[in-house]
Write a structure and sequence with these properties.
Distance between the termini: 65 Å
Largest sheet: 12 strands, antiparallel, barrel
Radius of gyration: 21 Å
Structural class: mainly beta
Shape: globular
């Protein structure tokens, strides 16, 4: 007589935390040759899939040459806070969750032309690693991204004109083309920008970063959202893109916060 086998399991997934838990697992009369253990990496893979896909390690040169900051060999997790008290309205503090230490700051320009924003990303020693310069004349919101304090332009981030969901594209400066004849973007950011839940993919469709609201890791001094970055991916480029997109939706973020506080 064949042995009966019963598995009862409940899986809980929290997309904002990118994780799954097996809440209940019961086996009844398993066959002698049947393993009753469930590999937890399967649960982890399910969580990664439901939150946008698994982060893929990046190898080889980046589309724009040397990185703005040396990538980690492991997944990097960062917490990003938009400063409540800001003279420019474009100030962010970034904390390394892995190192439990400040990672970098993003500061807007004190003086700039209306409609032309500039932000600088500085390391913990105050060195400018990258500059974001919003184009004054563009069909859609567009930011040039430069090395250091207005140095070499490595590329530009622009909001896609035609897309089924919210989309921003990053084009490397050396990719060539212009207007409608531009080559495919080096990176694409898609998702829900208002709720800060979106992913960044390279031109091969590999997920290189995830941005999400996160309350798993609490800091008394600020509310924040989380960025997870694949090994080998330039963290400063990801931060630059996330902060530029955040600024484009800044007024909507403020409106939503006011509604939640009522």
């Amino acid at each position: 007589m064949r042995s009966s086998f019963l598995l009862i399991a409940s899986v809980c997934f929290l997309p904002e935390q990118g994780a799954c838990w097996l809440t209940q697992c019961r086996f009844s009369s398993p066959p002698a040759t049947q393993s009753t253990s469930l590999p937890m990496n399967v649960i982890s893979d399910i969580g990664e899939f439901l939150s946008g896909g698994k982060l893929e390690a990046q190898t080889g040169p980046l589309p724009y040459g040397a990185p703005l900051r040396e990538p980690r060999s492991e997944i990097a997790t960062l917490a990003v806070q938009e400063r409540a008290l800001s003279f420019t309205g474009e100030d962010f503090d970034v904390w390394s969750v892995d190192e439990n230490a400040p990672y970098c700051t993003v500061r807007g320009a004190m003086l700039h032309l209306p409609g032309k924003d500039k932000m600088r990303i500085k390391d913990r020693d105050g060195r400018v690693m990258a500059t974001l310069d919003r184009k004054l004349v563009a069909l859609t919101p567009t930011y040039d991204i430069q090395r250091g304090d207005g140095g070499e332009k490595i590329g530009y981030l622009e909001k896609a004109t035609i897309a089924f969901i919210d989309t921003f594209d990053f084009h490397a400066a050396n990719s060539g083309g212009f207007g409608p004849f531009k080559p495919p973007p080096a990176y694409k950011l898609e998702g829900d920008f208002l709720d800060r839940r979106f992913i960044m993919k390279n031109d091969k469709g590999q997920v290189v970063a995830k941005i999400s609201q996160d309350q798993l890791i609490e800091f008394d001094q600020f509310n924040h959202y989380q960025i997870r970055i694949a090994p080998g991916m330039d963290p400063v480029l990801v931060i630059a893109c996330a902060c530029a997109i955040d600024e484009e939706f800044d007024e909507l973020h403020k409106k939503r916060r006011e509604e939640q506080n009522r």
